[in-house]
Amino acid sequence: MEIQDLIKKLNRAGNAMAAGANAQSSEAGADKESLDAIVQLVSFMLEEVEYGIDILAVHEILRMPEITRLPNTPLYVRGVINLRGNVIPVVDVRERFGLSRAKITDLTRIIVVEIGEKLVGLLVDNVYQVVRMPEKNIDPPSELIEGVSEEYIMGIGRLQDRLIVILNLGNILFAEEEVSRA
Amino acid sequence: MAYTLGEYQDIFLEEADEQLQELNQNLLQLEQNPEEIEIINNIFRAAHSLKSSAAFVGLNGLSDLAHKMENLLQGIRDKTLNVTPDIVEVLFRCFDKITGVITTVASGKEPTEDLSGIIRDIERIGTGKVPGKKEAAAAPAAPAPAFKTEFNPEERRAIKRGLESGMSCCELTVFIDRSALMKSLKARLVISNLEHVSEVVKTLPDLESLGHDEEIDVFRVILLSDSSVEEIRKACDLDQITRVDMREISLKQQDDKLILRFHNTETLAEEKEEDAPALPGAPAAMEDKRSDTADAEAQDDDEDEPEKSADVGARVDKRVGMLKTVKVSVDKLDQLLNNVGELVISNSGFYKLYEELRKRSFDKSIINEFKNRMEQMSRIAKDLQSGIMKTRMVPIGGVFTRFQRLVRDLNIEFGKKVQLKIVGEETELDKKVIDAIGEPLMHLIRNAIDHGIEETEARKKYAKPDVATVTLNAYQGGNQIFVEVSDDGRGLNVDEIKRSAVKNNLATPEMVANMDNEDIYNFIFNPGFSTKQVVTDISGRGVGMNVVKEIVSELNGNVTIETEPGMGTRFVMAFPLTLAIIPAIMVKVGREMYAIPLSDVIETIKISTSDIQTIEGHEVINLRGEILSLLRLNRFVRAKSALGPDQKIPVVVVGYGNRKIGLMVDFLEGKQEIVIKSLEQNYRTVEGLAGASILGDGSICLILDISSMMNKVITEQETLSDRDRKRLREGDFIEEADYEEAVLEGPVSAAASATGAREEYRAMSAEKPTVAERTVWEKPSPPSVERTGERAESVKAEKGHARPSVSETPSVAAELDDEEDFKIISEDMPPIADTETPVVGREDEEIEKRVKDALHKFKDELRENVQGAMEGARPYDHLKEALQMDDDDLDGVRVLANLGITHAAENLSKILNKQIDLTIPDVRFIRIDKIPETIGSIDSVYIGVYMPLQGDINGTILFSFIEENGFDLIDTLWGTETGKTRELTEDGESALKELGNIVGSSVINVIAEKINMAIKPTVPTVTHDYMQATLDSILVMHSIKNDYALIMETDFFYGDDRVIGNMLVLPDTESLKLIVDKLKQ
Questions:
Q1: Which of B287, B308, B863, B966 could bridge across to B961 with cysteines, CB 3.0–4.6 Å?
Q2: Whole domain around residue A103: which residue ranges?
Q3: Does A8 touch chain B (CB under 8 A)?
Q4: Does the model's ipTM exceed the 0.90 cut?
């Protein structure tokens, strides 16, 4: 009887230990995952600089549709487009960053992003690619990016020898509109 | 009066219907699978909610029946009863009975069904317990409290307030150990603990009896709290508290009513008693039972064979007049309406296609078939549209009744006696209007009571009823819905408004002097406008009326004021039937299309450049003697005009409030129905734009916001000095230059035209920048014909191999704009003539005509609607009411007038020695300003003889004839040849005076005799003028103040049908009242 009890106890202890180990390992796994969390970015090139937008914010990517100009709005607001019955504004990213306007080419795209509840189109020269990047590779915007003020930047991502400027979409349409009007 | 359960009736009927359907459905299933616990649970739930809702609306009999049903079902659930055909039978009969009651209620009758029979049946059958299990069905550990949770209105309000401020409301049922001593102390302890963490709204039984009654071992607390459940539980955690149940209570918005909804019970704390028998499945049942409101009645133990029900067939559904509804969120409806709007609009694209097909003369039969299909589709789309629109309509009654309370409170505050009269509560309005209309109504009612209604003493003086009336009325007229707030107070004081307007710098004294009353009344809508010296709590700050105007405008409506000194004021808000789709005039500037809501458009005209004059730097034109400010739409939207200097410029005259402005556009494109889409949804409000619309071809067109445009223009004009203005114009110039860069260089709109022609498109965009740069940067400081010409050439040359048709227009337009800018800045320069003008291949005339037609039609409709609504029977009713006259009284007046005028005709016949016929006097109330158009032609000159009345009655009698008839009459009187008299001589006048005297006196004498009053006409006066002027002089000379007059109008004829003239009797309001009183005697 005693032996049997002992065995039972041992078994129980063993089970408990195993469970503990399991728990630990799963915790460790979670940690590792968060370190290795992958961010997917839609990237585009402007004047030799690569910019990225979190793919979760991207609604769709359009070829150049007809744009209706919106009077009495800042110059970087190119106008509005009809996205299946929705009227959405289009921001010229170049203009927003203080760069000169570029010509519309075959590669020109509008990246429709969701900012809060709103849909906004970003007019870009091209859509470069979709980049997968570990989250840990993203640094806060400490380095100075030429031409682009810090308020539009959420961080800088490093991918081997590439630097990708990750955009802060919140400010791209709505912050300090009046400034660029002047 | 139909029987009703009060405001929750509809909801109750709707819910009960659903529940009954569920019950029937489930019971049928149960019959098949008697063991299926899930079905029993379903039935149980439905019966339970039916019971609660029946109790809620006061159908206690029904609630009791449902309760018995529930007991029976509980037996089944607890397995103390088996599902037998008898039970099922009884349950079905129950459902039929309930259906009967509900049908009775729905048809507006009081339910009188006797439910006791069926209740007895249930009780009888409920005792048929499964042998051997009887013990298991022991009484629950704690009986349910024998009281019902009911709230009085004050508690309801408290709960509502609490819930609205974010607290949660719940009902705690606290069970105290039966064996505990000093139960009342425990109860009070719990309550005082609860008071620390929450606001106790109510206890059941009330605190008083809780404090004294030692036998209470279960009590309920209704509390409002923002503490967590855990905190509440702790507060109740005392020794010998065996159990705490909690039910959440929430507010439920149903249509316009708020109801309190009880949620399911959950047990917070339960002290486990070792010796209590654990009943599997029982706790749940107990909980439900405890959460009930009714008493736990022990079931009878009488063993009786359950009665075989005779009316088995009666359980066939026979609901009559039951509401069958589905609740749909407004968002979904909006979406649907939007889509249908799109459908209607894209459908209009087919018409274009049809025209095109016809021109190209395809097979006739195919074209006809196409047309048929197209029309059919358009009909369906329209039907769909109006159908969906109707689903958005909600009766306004709910909003109206809310104000009963406000009026009551205001009565107390101001010590006035005002009753609120509600008319037309069944009128349906768009949900959006319903949601927004509360605020304007509130302001209008407050204003009416604070400013409009006199003090009781003052009302006595004017012999008005002590209790003043504020009336809310809603009705439909044509395409519009009118909502009005009227009072029988003192009316607006024009002089006071004028004074305040001048004081508040809204107008100069000169301006005010020249304005008509309507415009002056509109001053009260200005922000900050108040005539009150004292700002009271509720009004006088001058905010309210402005809010009214703004909200109403936001809903595409407008508000008009009708007032009558001493009689009252009426604010009429007119809303379009639907908000989502509006008719608009489409205009083009450059290549951009804009829509101007038709409701803002007054007219469209065409002007040439030479018509434009400049006053203080503003461009204006003289429009039929009126100075109309012009605004170049292309400058406002910063685009280039496509018009050449010699081309006539279409101008859309738009109005907002009492201001008008002419919008210079390039082309008129016709009228279109458009669906409004907000820009705010994805962007923000843009100055000057009311929104956007998607056209048939998928392109976006922007809708102009006339009010904000005008405000902007007016502010600019008013606040800037001349110098600033100049600078602004130069600023504009520069900005426009910037803009050109934007447009020219960006092939934004060109891109669309180029779709499908990628090659060309690329070539073109590659080409473009160079041109753009030149256009922008080479902008000549003083532009010369030579240079512009050259540039146009070069542009063309460069474009030649790309797509000239696409890129040519903007460039040329740019030239023109340069020229135009230049012209505006140095106004004296002659226009440059020979710039190349773009070829515009369109039938301008036709479009213009169409726009004009549409506009006329719209205006006519609008006028009709407004008139029909405001000037038809309404003032009549208004006055009738004020005079407390009914139709019989009016008939009395009519008889009187008839007698008098017949008498007059007899006399006239004697004098003229001719047969005189006369029409039956038309007795009615009309507005004085409408008299001229009512009794004759506005453009004719009349000769009138009028006599003021003296004695007990004040007023005037007017005998009038068209000029020629007057001359003929003079000829007849003097016996001269007909046609001799061609001007009014002194002799002629005296003859007419004599005639007037005789005829007038005969009328008055008869009337005086009949009503036994001393009235006599005074010396007659002859006027020779337009009817309006004649009436004006009568009103002014005799200071008759009423806006409405009783007219007794009769046409006199010679035997040969020639009209001699007509007679008006205009007693003043007070006298009219006297006449009526006399007649009543």
A1: B966
A2: 38-181
A3: no
A4: no
